[in-house]
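Need tokens for this chain, all 204 residues.
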Amino acid sequence: MDRSNKKTHGGNHAHPQKRAAALLAVFLLAACSSVTKVTDFEHRSLAYGWVDIKDVEINHVSSIYIQQYRPKTDAPYYTTGFKKFKDGFLFWSMALPVGSHKLDTIKGQSCLGILCSNTFYTYNFGKQGDEVGAVVIKAPGVYHLGSYKMKNEKSGWLEQSKFQVLPAPNAPSRREMLEEILKDDDTKDTPIIVERIKRELARL
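Here are the structure tokens for all 204 residues:
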């Protein structure tokens, strides 16, 4: 997982420890031009997750992206809704189609009150085959991408800085996360997703 730079909307378990190379960057990712925009959600799914970022360089999130790996598409990136929630950040996309998807990047900066650094960090969560934040969607529904704790890792003087991704022991429950997503205005304006969330809450 590299640390380099990257909302449309748009899973399942916390996974074992994952290492990542972290590269400092201050540019916007060119792949943003490959973002999928969705207006019809009948055949789309909600995917959601949560991250604890207290132990990395950022405390403010500016974007979180999910990437579609299969089937191949010219616009594989999905922006997410996100908000501070329960000592971390809750994120979700309600636009994912049938296929293989994965948490791609989290971009942010360090802020003190309203004053923020002009340095942006992008944490890359790796490619297909990595289980962190990965999901295979076989039918429209609600999918949990996992809850994770990001943590800096010591590296040598000339090495790229690294971070670990661990299962988050302090994560909110799936019920708490879904109930919070229901409060979002964009979610409220998408009745088919609201109904799917309510069905999932009844199942939990």
